[in-house]
Amino acid sequence: MNLTVREALLAFRRAPLLSALSVTTIAFSLFVLSLFGLVAVNLQNALRRVAERVEIVAYVLPGTPAETITLALKDIEAFPEVAAATFVSEDEALTRAKTELVEFRDVLRELEHNPLPASIEVKLKPAFRDAEHVNPVADRLRGFGFVDDVRFGRDWVEKLDRLRQLAAAVGIVVGAAFAGVAIIIIGTTIRMAVLQRSREIAIMRLVGATDGFVRRPFLLQGAMKGLLGGLVAVGLSYGAYALIDRVLIQVSFFTHEQSLVIVGFGTLIGLMGSLLSVGRHLRRV
Amino acid sequence: MIKFTSVFKAFPKGGLALKDISFHVAKGEFAFLTGHSGAGKSTVLKLIYADERPTGGEVRVSGFNVAELRQRDIPMLRRRLGIVFQDFRLLEDRTAEENVAFTLEVTGARRNGIAARVMRVLTQVGLAAKAQAYPRELSGGEQQRVAIARALVNEPTVLLADEPTGNLDERATRGVFQLLRDINASGTAVVMATHDLDLVRQAPYRVIELQEGAVVYDSAVDEPRGDAAPAS
Ligand SMILES: Nc1ncnc2c1ncn2[C@@H]1O[C@H](COP(=O)(O)OP(=O)(O)OP(=O)(O)O)[C@@H](O)[C@H]1O
Ligand SMILES: [Mg+2]
Description:
The structure holds two protein chains of two kinds. By secondary structure, chain A is α+β, with helices and mostly antiparallel strands. Helices cover 72% and strands 9% of the residues of chain A. Chain B is built from seven helices and ten strands. Chain B is 31% helix and 26% strand. By secondary structure, chain B is of the alpha/beta class. The chains are: A alpha+beta, B alpha/beta. Chain A binds chain B through residues 3, 199-200, 202-211, 213, and chain B through 49, 71-72, 75-79, 83, 89, 91, 102-103, 105-108, 150, 154.
């Protein structure tokens, strides 16, 4: 086996407790980050589903002539944001209500007068399904004289979006704090390893080892701890996900790419910790 | 090969360790560095292997200028040198063979040649039979032979020895000294710091004597002197 790899692996045997501590802190910091990540990912999914249904409904004043509406539909469909615009007459609205609102079917059947207004349902193109684009379209619809009122799920979308951003932000802040602690702990273990092996390092240098060569096992060791920590974090997150999915609500897990990013981030933390520590301490031995 | 020109060395807290030292050791030469404890012998050797830098003057070692050597070029200088110490400096958790192989691994030698090269130098120092022994299973003389094998395995042009017999009894001293002479006879220059004047008198080699950081006698330039002359 390569000397660098052998030395890096030996570190786990030389200081098993400290190594376990490093791996655990990295795993824990990434686990926290991952939990918030899971919340964000699931909110994002929910948002996407809602966004797909984002429709703007423009209620039409009673007695608007059919030609006016036909002309308006053409205008609306010509908006760059709009995918489709459909007219729903009073009768269609009632029929739909009867099939969709089963609970009220009897009530609706008893009605002598149809209370539901006619409306124009506007579907936006996928790229424009957000608050920023919905508002101006709604305003433009309000500009039509026959439009009584305009509704869309803006509040909902915005709240969900804010929640997702909050989850992501909290996750990043808390995760970064733990990552900082992990870097410090990794740095400390590297420092102890360097001091413990100062005699050996001095001999390596004496026989002509480059600084890079002396440093490499320590960096590899840090990266391996980070990698392990990342794997443990993904494993823990999967456990948490499976539990929530089974007993609480149906949720989704990270994609393979997202899991890889977590493991990669762990490796980076490990590498950072050792990189920040090893140069400083090697200079002293 | 090794050339000191008006070299000064001052330590931040410790005053002047070397004062205006000049000498030249030629290729294949054997030179003793003698002098009292604290005279500056180890400091001279450290300047040669760039463990310390001169604070004045010029130190040249096989083409390298030690004062101006970049940090990352120091390993390249050391790979041309073999270094042996009084306290052997072997790795306790490695066998004799592994201690020697370590040098090659650390300098990135090709793996398939290592075993053969290690056995060749262990045979040269007469320790082939103890290749699998750990340092604690070897006598002082044997440990020093392992250290010499380690110094030789990179085929250095100069072997530096800082009191290599300082921890050895008379018999082991003679053995190690003879080994160094053999190594020198095969073409490697040797610079050996010692205060064992019996050893110095035994051989017709170059003697550079230091006293409080200055060269007070150099057999290459000064008149030969009687046995009684060097203070011990
Ligand atoms: N790192 C250092 N910092 C300060 N002073 C030092 C340092 N290294 C050596 N000295 C001083 O330089 C002088 C020469 O030391 P050096 O080790 O070269 O002597 P030496 O001839 O090898 O002695 P010995 O025979 O005892 O090994 C001494 O006075 C010593 O105290
Ligand atoms: Mg000394």
